[in-house]
Amino acid sequence: MKIYRTYTLTITNVISHYPKQIICSFTLALIIATLFFGQHIAENTQDIWQLITGQADPYQSIVVWQWRASRLFAALVIGAALGISGAVFQSLVRNPLGSPDITGFNVGAFTGVLLSIALFGNLYWFSVLGAILGGLFSALLVYIFAYRDGHSGFRLIIVGIAISATLSAFNQWLILSVSLETAMTAALWSAGTLNGMTWARILPAAVLITVFILCAFLLNTRMKLLEMGDDTAAALGVSVNKTRLALMFVGVALTAVATAITGPIAFIALAAPQIAKRLENSASTSLGSSALVGGLLLLSADFIAQHGWEGSTLPVGLITVSLGGIYLVFLIIREGRK
């Protein structure tokens, strides 16, 4: 028993001292497994080397570098976007339940995409624009209805859940009202999936996500000051309302772009900042660590979705919902005990 406790303490100390290095190591191992794991692709190190140097069979190269690599890149980028979005909102409401999944901003983005598909068809840039506008609209509703002499984190979450339920009902009505072809497209997309991801689809979204991530890091200092309280932040020269609105816009935009590409993927934004905080043993939320953990979580979930069931590939959203639901129950119990 003492040996077990010693090993556990040693592992905990190593993780707390080198969290980012450990996350990067796991991510690198998963990247290699995602690219080269599978029948008739790479059965030994020589096959992997031939794929890296371009000497492999053309079919194998297409599978690895066109199909798998684009899907892997999408998982990392979108996971990072969701992780940072969750970190921003959890910082704003000062509550670990304050993420786009819970407050309904991703449902609003879903509403925007559904309206775009119903009105203009399944066009890429219209879907992205619809997702951003839908997410901003839901955020505006939450912001307005939750205001009462300021914004309480708990009130924002409760109002967000109510808005999310209302928009979910509207989404169901909208799917039942459109044509069968449009409804099938929306239903497949709404599961949250990386299936069929291509470089042409993910690269423009990656540019947008990179811009919004840079904006989040530029606002990071002011976000940390807001965590100290509105009065303290105002005394230190921070424009509280403008900063909060700017952070909400960045967080919603990151969620909306990710939702427009893959559909709503739940619980990455909820879990990534909390896991990153525990790995770093820090009281505040780190945007960089949240991005790393978000990318690792989504890549892990997609690996399970691809290889967990032989002969079939599941939407990654089903995996994140299944695992995230367990995490949400744990989080609610822990917060209730506090």
TrEMBL record:
The keyword rRNA processing does not apply. It comes from the Bacteria. It is found in: Cell membrane. GO terms for biological process: siderophore-iron import into cell. It holds the Pfam family FecCD. Keywords: Cell membrane, Membrane, Transmembrane, Transmembrane helix, Transport. It is a multi-pass membrane protein. One of its GO terms (molecular function) is transmembrane transporter activity. InterPro entries: ABC_BtuC-like (IPR037294), ABC_transptr_permease_BtuC (IPR000522). One of its GO terms (cellular component) is plasma membrane. The chain crosses the membrane at residues 21-42, 72-93, 105-125, 131-147, 154-178, 198-219, 245-271, 313-333. CDD domains: TM_ABC_iron-siderophores_like (cd06550). Belongs to the binding-protein-dependent transport system permease family. FecCD subfamily. This is Iron complex transport system permease protein. It comes from Marinomonas polaris DSM 16579.
